[in-house]
Every structure is written in C-alpha cells, then in structure tokens.
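Lecture 7, part B: from sequences to assemblies.

Below are the input chains for today's worked example.
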Amino acid sequence: MSKNSIGEFEEIVMLTVAVLYNDAYGITIKKEIEERLKRKVSVGAMRTALNRLEKKGFLSSEFGEATAVRGGKRKRYFKVTPYGKTALESVMETRKQLWDSIPDVAFDFKFS
Amino acid sequence: MGTSMVSRNQHFKPPGFALRFLRFFCNPELLEDVEGDLVELFEERSRSSKVKANVRFLVDVLLLLRPGIIKNFEINTQLIHTGMLRNFILIAWRNALKHKGYTFINLFGLVIGLAASITIMLWVEDELAMDSFHEKEARTYQVWRNMYQTSGEIVTTPGIPQPLEFVLEEEYPEIEDVTLISWQMEKVFQIGDNSSYEIGRYVSPEFFQVFSYPILLGDQNSMMSDISNVVISKRTAEKYFGTNWRQKALGQTIRIEDRKDFMVSGVFENVPKRSSLQFDWVIPAEEYISRNDWVPSWYNGGFGIVFSLKDNKDLLQVTERLEQEINKHTNYENDERIMLQKFSETHLYSKIENGQPSGGRIEYVRILIVIAIFLVVIACVNFMSLATARAGRRLKEIGVRKVMGARKVSLGQQFYIEAFMLSGVAVLFSLAVVWLFLPYFNELTGKSLSLNVSNIQVLGTIILLTLITGMMAGSYPALLLPSFKIIQSIKGTLKHSPGAILMRRGLVVFQFSISLLLIIGTLVVNNQMNYVLNKNLGLDKENLLYVSLDGALFEKSKTYKEELLKIPEVKNVTTTTGNPLDYGRSTSGASWDGKNPNDVVEINVLTAGDDLIETLGIELLQGRAFSKEFNDSTSYLINEVAARIMGYENPVGGNLNVWGQKGKIIGVINDFPMASLYEPIEPLIVRYDPANTFVAFIRTQGNTYEALKSIEELTAQINPAHPFRYKFLDEQYEANYKSEMTLNSLTRIFAGISIVISCLGLLGLASYTASQRSKEIGIRKVHGASMLHLIYLLSKEYGRLMIVAFVLAVPIGYYYMNQWLMDFEFRTELNWFLFVIAGIVAFVVGALTVSLRSYQAATVNPVDVLKDE
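Predicted structure of the full complex, as structure tokens:
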C-alpha cells in the first residue's frame, strides 16, 4: 500500500473513470470532475494523472475508433483495473477504519 | 446536424503553431489522444467564442508542458553535450595556460612540423599539376625515339624524324592533331633600336589545338599559316608595343636574328609556370624546315612531336602500329622504335632507361612527401609522449571526474578535444609561418607557390591535416589516460604499465631514427653534390666563358677571335659547335677499320676551331692537336672511350670516316663527361672545321670583370645588332644539377627541423622523468650523490634509446642512400664516417637537451621535494 499510495486527485480521477464506465476518455473525465467537484481541471493535469495511474497499473486504456469530430484523432478510453479497484478499496477501507476509530466525543462539539 | 457540424468545424481550426509545438514536445505515445482531446475541446469552445477557444487551446498546450507529457529528449542530449564540451574547452584552455612550457613545446613542435609539411605539400601539388592545365592533357602524347645500339644499350631521344608528322596525320585516323615542337631557342628580336633575346620555339600550326594556351589576339586558325608569321606572348607584346598592344601589335614587323622580317599575327597569354614548355614566341616550323634541308629526312631527328588522340580512341592500337614506323621508312637500317609517353608525365618521369620511362623528378617528389609525413608524425609523437608523461599532473582531475560519474568515453573525448584544439591552433599558426616563409622557399626552389586558402582543395587539405594531426596526437592519451584506476588517480601515485613505458621509449627511438635518417641523407647528398661540383672533369671549367656566334659574329668569327686575343685578360679562344659539358650532337654514321657495317654505335661529334685543347684545358694523351700548319679538314681527335670502342691498337693514324669524309685520327684526348654525371662518358669525335662553329669559348685570366668589360665592348662593336650575352661554363654546369641542389638545401632544412622537433620532445620527456624521480633525486642528494652522478642517472636511459635509434637508422639510411647514389655513374663512396657524424650530431644535441633538464632537476634543493608525502 505504501508503495502505490494514491493521491487525492488520483483517487478522484479513478473514481470518475469508474463512474463513467464505458465512456471514460479525456474530455468526459475532465467534464465529470469539473461538474461534480465544481473546480477547473486542466488537460495537462488530468493527462499527467491518467498517465501516472496507468503506469502504476491502476488504469488500463485502449483506443476507440477514429471520428471526424476530433480532427481524426482516436479517443483513448480508460478502465479501472482489478488492481486499481483493490487500491481504491484499500483507501476506502483505511478511511472507514479511521472514521470508525473516531471516538464519538471527538465530533461532539456541544461541550467544547 | 452531424454533417453540418463537420463542415462548420473545418472553418475553425486550432492555431497551427500551438499544435506544432505540442507535436514537438509531446510524448508520441500520448500525442494522439491528447491532441484529439484538445481539438475536441477547441471545437466545443469555438462554438461560443473563437478567440476564447484559441486562447484556451494555447493555455492548455502550455499547461501540458510537464514531466509526464514531454517526450524523452535523452538521445539528443547525448549527442549535443554542449555543456560538457564547454567545460572541456575551458579546462583545456586553463591547462594550456597553467603549463605554459609544455604548451609551448607542443605547439612549437607542431607548428614547425606542420608549416614544413604544408610547404612541401604546396610544392608537391605544384609538381604534380605540371602541364595538367591542358584541356586534352589526358590524351596528349609525346613521341620518343628509342635507338637500339649493337652494344645492347638503348639510346632514347625526343628528336623525331620530321616526316613522321605526315604519317601520323594521314595514316592514323585515331589521331586528332599532330604538332612539331623544336627545342627551346633564343633569338634576337629587333624593332627599331629596340632589341633583345627572346626564348621560343618552332611549332606546327596545330600547336594551339593540341595545347591550351589561350589566344588573346589573332585568328587561331590562320595565324600560323604563313612562314613569316610570328605569334608572341602578352609579355613580349607589352615589351615592344607598350600598354596598348591590343591595338598596335597585330600586323607589326619584327626583325629576327637580323636575318628576316616576321609579321606579328597573334598574341597568346603568358605561358604559366605550370607549363613545362616555356616560350615567348612561336614561328611556323615550316620556316625552319625550309632553311634546313637535313630536317625532312627519316634519318635525322630535328623536332619533337606531340599529338593528341581523338576522344575515346585506344592508345594501345596506335602504339603497336607506330612502333616500327621509322624502321619501315628506313628499311630497318638502324633499329629505331617509337615509344609514347603521356605528355603531362614527361616532366616528372623524365628519366628514360632501356627505352622506358623510369622515374626522374618524381623520385624527389616522393622523397619530399615522405619527409612531410615524417615531420608531422614526429611532431605528433611529441604531443603523444608529452601528454602521457604529463598524465601525472592530470591524474587528480581524471580521478575527480570519474568520481563525479564521468565515463571513460567522455574522458577520452576530453583528450581528443584538447588534441584537436591544439592541432587547430597549430595549423593556424603554421599557416601564418608558411605565409611568411613562402617567398624564401620560392626563391630556393625557383617556384611561384602561393598559399591560397580560398581554394577548396587547399582548404580541404588543411582541414584534413588538422583532423589527422588531432587524431594522431590525441589517440594515445585519449585511450590511455581514462583507463587509470580511480583510487590511484586520486592518490596521485601513478605507475605506468610496462606497455606505456615501452611505447614512450618506442616513440623516442622512432623520432630519433627519423632525425638520424634525415641527417644521414643530408650529409650524403651534400657530399655527392660537392663531389659533382668539384670533380676534376678532365676539362677546366673555371674562368671559361662562352659567347654564341650570332649574326655578324658568325661571319666575322676569325676577326673576332683575333681581336679577342688582343685583350690582355683573354688567355685563349676557341670555337666549337656547343657546350662540351652538355653536348648532344651525335651520329651513328661513323665508320672505322674493322667495324662491323651492321653495328649501330652512336658517337658524339664536336666540330671545333683552333686552340681547342689549350682553351678548354683538356689533355692530349697521344698524337697531336689541330694545327694551321697542316690541312686538318679530314683529321679527327677522339676521346679514350671512342678509342676503346674502335679498338685500334694504335689509334693515331687510324682511318676514320665521319659523314662520308674519310680521314685519319691524329690524336687522343682525355675523357670528360658530355652529359650529366648520372651517365657514363660517351665516345667523342672532334672534327676540325672553324667555319662551321657557332660558339666561342674564351678563357680569361686575371680580373674577370675587366675581361668582361673589354669583351662586351668588342662584341658590340663587331655585332651591333645583337645584345651582348655570355655564360660561364661552370655556372651552366651547376645549373644542370639544379634539382639536386634544391634537394640538397631542402633536406638540410628539413633535417634541422626534425632534430629540433625531436629535441623538444626529448626535453619534455626528460622533464617528466625528472619530476617522476624528484623524490629519489632528493634522497640521493641527501645521501651525498654528486651532481654528475645524478645527471648521468637521469640521462642514461635516453642515451640508450639514442643508441638504439642509431642502430636502426644506419642500415635503412645505408640502403636508401646507396640506391640514390647508384643512379650516378660518378659518385662518392658511402663513407662510414658520414654515419658516425650523423650519430654524433644527433647524440650530442639530444644529450645536451636531456642533461640540461637533468642538471636543473639535480640542483633542486632536496628539502623542496622531500617535504611532503
């Protein structure tokens, strides 16, 4: 886990890819994130993240068919790999454990 | 909707430069979909605002400039390496400044070595380019006549029976143009009061078709059509007709030899120095032939013949048919065969032995090329051995570089770069040196060489020379130095491998062997030239001048002689048909008792007037000389060689028939060489016919200057039409050995240069040894070693090396110098003494160099070298 830790932005990208399922390529991912998180994402930042995740083996990608719309360039569709899923689950698990370990009083602000 | 979108989108394209920039830096694996994404976004955005879309596109592209996206430029950075390169150059520069002494030794050696080589290369290029400017150079041939003697010898002459010209023109369709070329002559040109001697030749009208001498004035096709035409050089035209010769020269009359008027029908560009034929005028050969009825005969050779082959014709076919052409027309009376040689090769391959070209000047060209290579190599050897020796000083640098991750390759590159830098600088300096000294070199060699750097060939050669020098000089250090171990390097202790030490010793031996060879060569050549010039020829060539009997002098030769003898400084006067030391009039038509009529023997025939023996200082061995008291018109003198050939037991009184004149031998004179000392002495018959002699020989005594003044006055008085001209026999004789003399002075200079370069290297190496052994010397000094002992200790290694070099150089030098001497019929012996001198010179100079440096090392205070460990 320590070796392949996932940053916050990466986690969001991976989750978005999973959400989009069959339609996860550069533009849709970008739009989805922008829509849900209400923040701007540059193509560069997103591409770098996708690239890094793919290198780590959390994502896999394949080319779609060429379309006239994009100047004839093919889309690269991303999928979360099983390994990626494990990683995401472990992040969630960690968080959940953390949440579970929080003593009730910690978030009870009545007495503070 | 979809189709309309596509068509609309075609009007909105993302900015091209941004796209190109993206394509330039983006990792090709990612490029396709990244570009697709951007374009898709752009299209979407451009629907609202085109300007905004453009700006956003550009921003996006710029934001993509991040490590994950940019492609790997590593391959390119390895090739360019500018940072490292700058560092190497900087370090090389600092090192050069830090060790000024070494840099100087290196640079100085390289500069003189390169300067000498560049000069030689210029000379060689000039020699090889001789006659190459003729357009038809590749298919122009000189005709030679090989005369097979009964003795088995082959006498070769360029004098060809003139009728062969017609045969070549008519019976050989392969041949394009044929021209006769006479020997170079000097004739007096007269225009009004203006008269002087000009050199030129009689040639056929086709001369200007065969050769490429540009015509400046006149019609090339008709200017040689009349036998009273003369075509002159631009130089001559300017001399006689002034600067506007272009308007004035054509149609002018020049009186030549005070005999006949010629009309200027053309002007040609001055003959370049790269032409082996030199002339300022040409006159149709027909003019000469019409006056000399001996010329149009198959039995005489009055002219040289040169022809050009038609394009794409095979010379071999011509050669075969041509060979027997003279024999066919003389019924095989004397066996005379035709041999062909490419005209442009006649300059360098002028020596003809056994009827075939066998070297000549090309040998000197080769010798000098070898010397040029040697000089560069020994200069490079300096660089190599000094760089290895200096390695000690660079060890720490190498070590640190290695610790910082420098690979062997990059260290090697560093030393190569240093070598190239040094050789580049050296080449620049040497060009300056060449430029400075070229005028002196030209004077020495009689050339007009120039350093033309804008010439592609010259520039290419110079760049090539820089690269080769850099390679040669840099290779050894570049391969050796980076291979030292890091620990050793940083500690600064350096143990050279036995291989490296052997290599360095080998280099010293090599350098000194070459220097020794050059010294030996110089001494031998010098010795031989002294011998040639001071040899007792059997004819006293000192204080003997000769005047050509031109114009009125010829008719009044008797008066002239009488008047000459009245001058107190004139001792004797005689007249002959030519310079006896450079004589070429011969016949195979002499016969004597007991001669086999079928034998062909070529014998020189000299025609002389009175007082021949006294004036020339030759010796009468038997019989008597020509005398006015007898009728000597059918009396002959012969030399010893001729006497041997004729085989008379008692030659005096023997019958001799020359040119159909039966007569008697009245005396035998001693032998003297009539050609160069390369040849054995030829047989000679002397005829007595004062009326048919053309040259007056005058032996002077006392003040030569006074003698010349009186002779000039007298000559001008008798022959006012001709300017007075004379030659000294000894000077003419020396002029025959001009190329040997040049070789002599050149080898002397280059031997000097080579020993200087070698000593520079030795100096560097001795310094190295001294610094390597500085602690040892210190300890020895502390223990009481004497100065002499220390010097001996430091020098003895080099002494041994020089002895090895001597042992190597002697047999090689002996072999080659012996070969060179063998060419001379008259030569000095190869004296062992010369080798000893060469050895002593090299040894003394080398030992002085080494012991000077050793002395310096031995006088250092031991405290200075022993204080740190």
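Note for the exam: The first strand of chain A starts at residue 59 and ends at 63. Keep this in mind when comparing with the next example.
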